[in-house]
């Protein structure tokens, strides 16, 4: 799989800016710094059908009813920084969704680790047993 950043997905991204809450003083009330990135997965020309299916399966909770994958950023005080942050998060999400997880190979614990575990259990049992009251019977 080619590097996802090299495909030119930027041309399929849509951005929308609005006013955000939080820190910023009076600036918050008059400047549109919150950025919302939208990417329509189903209509993408740069993703294969297999990749689209993977993205929809793994990022389904982030895709709205209209089929847009949404990423919202409003942590920074400038629109440009929020836009760059959105794009970085978008690529990270895509990278995670398109990375196949390795199959887990079942293994057994080593003989030495089993011995260490049992010795630890025996020590703990002896410690607790020595705490008990032993009267004259």
From TrEMBL:
GO terms for biological process: rescue of stalled ribosome. It is an enzyme of class 3 (hydrolase). Its EC number is 3.1.1.29. The keyword Glycoprotein does not apply. Residues 101-137 are annotated as: Disordered. The keyword Ribonucleoprotein does not apply. Pfam families: RF-1. InterPro entries: Pep_chain_release_fac_I, Pep_chain_release_fac_I_sf. Residues 19-35 form the Prokaryotic-type class I peptide chain release factors domain. Residues 101-120 have a biased composition (Basic residues). GO terms for molecular function: peptidyl-tRNA hydrolase activity; ribosome binding; translation release factor activity. It comes from the Bacteria. Keywords: Hydrolase. Residues 121-137 have a biased composition (Basic and acidic residues). Belongs to the prokaryotic/mitochondrial release factor family. PANTHER family: PEPTIDYL-TRNA HYDROLASE ARFB. This is Aminoacyl-tRNA hydrolase. It comes from Pontibacter mangrovi.
């Amino acid at each position: 799989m080619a590097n996802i950043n090299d495909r030119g997905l930027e041309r399929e991204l849509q951005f929308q800016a609005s006013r955000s809450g939080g820190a910023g003083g009076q600036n918050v009330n008059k400047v549109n710094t919150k950025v919302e990135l939208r990417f329509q997965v189903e209509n993408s020309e740069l993703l294969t059908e297999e990749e689209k299916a993977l993205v929809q399966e793994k990022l389904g909770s982030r895709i709205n009813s209209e089929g847009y994958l949404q990423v919202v950023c409003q942590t920074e005080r400038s629109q440009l920084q929020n836009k760059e942050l959105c794009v970085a998060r978008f690529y990270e999400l895509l990278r995670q969704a398109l990375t196949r997880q390795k199959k887990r190979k079942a293994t057994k614990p080593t003989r030495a680790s089993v011995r260490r575990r049992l010795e630890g259990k025996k020590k703990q049992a002896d410690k607790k047993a020595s705490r008990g009251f032993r009267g004259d019977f």
